[in-house]
Amino acid sequence: MMNHLRNCGKFSTLVFADHSSGKLSKSTLKILNAAKLLNQQISLLVTSNDANSVVDQIKSSIPSNVVHQVLVAQHDSFKAPQADVLGNLVKQLIDQHGFTNFVTSTSTLAKDFLPRVAVKYAAQPITDVIAINNDVFLRPVYAGNAIAQVKSSDKVKFISFRPTNFEEIQQTGEKVTNIVQVKVENTKQLIEHVSDELVQSDKPELTTAKFIVSGGRALGSKENFKILDELANALGNTAIGASRAAVDAGYAANDQQVGQTGKVVAPELYIAVGISGAIQHLAGMKDSKVIVAINKDQEAPIVSVADYTIVDDLFKVVPELTKKIKEIKQ
Ligand SMILES: Cc1cc2nc3c(=O)[nH]c(=O)nc-3n(C[C@H](O)[C@H](O)[C@H](O)COP(=O)(O)OP(=O)(O)OC[C@H]3O[C@@H](n4cnc5c(N)ncnc54)[C@H](O)[C@@H]3O)c2cc1C
Predict the structure, then answer these.
(1) Mutation probe of ligand 1 site: the residue of 128, 228, 260 with most atoms within 8 A of C-beta
(2) ipTM of this model?
(3) Name one Pfam family in it (predicted).
(4) Cβ proximity of 246 and 219 under 8 Å
């Protein structure tokens, strides 16, 4: 690895790489495409206690005409990344190298540390950005019912992009070779990481899944939710989501919630099973390419955003649909 750091000049962008269990996340490939719209040289920041495998993936997938250099900050405290140490590191890099944009995805981690850095520059973070029009950032507000147009005069801009609104970067051409180790100067930790409770699932992650089957209150129990599992297995490569009512009732896990206070998704296919389509739910899934509603109420709000609606009892429709898909796939 090279061990010198290039000063990035007057206008440049630092993008924070998302990764998990040694794998570079697709969201990173998407927000790089978003960051390109800022028309500045891009540096990519990888923080980890062991960055080797993520850096290898970057070296084999990310073109040098997208990312000019990769900054690698390795430190034990990044084993379970904490907002305070991350925030200090980002400030250190901005001060040292004069980045004028700091970009993240809309991950939970970024929601935690982005404002912590922004406040040190008296800057207003521009979050949940879905598009840029010249120098105007577009971001949904009021549960997606209005789009705010934001212009910022902050000297350093702190921006989070919604990965679901951007395509992944093309992975063709020469790949980035400029890998630079950076020293983490301030490792003072005010937050103590106690433990992780990870939900084990053989299903794809909600925000990057191609297909999603989501269940609502109408499922009635955790046990009944399993019929969605069978439908998802029949479809293949399908994640399982839930409405907040289903999560609150304990039918599904917290991290399955789709919506304003859950995850924002935009899969190729979203099947809403026994979900009414409250405005807060629609805010998280209405950009899905094809929406199918299974609901016994023809007047349910979900019907107005659905491309196809099956008006019937879900306990009849879901097993039939599962059976048909299995037959077709045989
Ligand atoms: C600040 C705030 C944030 C929120 N954030 C979120 C969020 O992120 N995500 C979210 O989902 N909600 C969120 N909510 C809650 C939201 O307002 C709704 O209460 C919730 O989405 C309703 O969930 P549901 O559609 O599963 O239940 P319901 O609204 O009760 O709908 C159940 C649906 O199932 C249908 N049904 C019933 N039985 C059957 C059957 N046998 N077969 C077929 N269909 C049947 C009914 O016709 C109905 O349409 C939020 C609310 C607030 C106030």
Answers:
(1) 260
(2) 0.99
(3) ETF
(4) yes
> Percentage of the chain with pLDDT > 90?
85
Averaged pLDDT for residues 148-172: 95
- pLDDT tens per residue across span 94-147: 999 999 999 999 998 999 999 999 999 999 999 999 999 989 999 999 888 899
Domains of the chain: 12-182 (3.40.50.620), 206-329 (3.40.50.1220)
d(C-alpha 282, C-alpha 302), whole Å: 8
- Ligand 1 pocket check for 259: Cβ under 6 Å: yes
Q: At 82, give phi and psi (nearest 5°).
A: -115, 140
Q: Nearest to residue 311, comparing CAs of 259, 257, 273?
A: 273
Neighbouring C-beta atoms of residue 57, cutoff 10 Å: 17
Determine contact, residues 247/216, Cβ cutoff 8 Å.
Answer: no
What backbone phi and psi angles, to 5 degrees, belong to 130? -110, -15
The pLDDT of residue 311: 98
Closest CA to 11 of 31, 40, 33, 36: 40
Pocket test for ligand 1, best of 295, 302, 310 (most atoms within 8 A of CB): 295
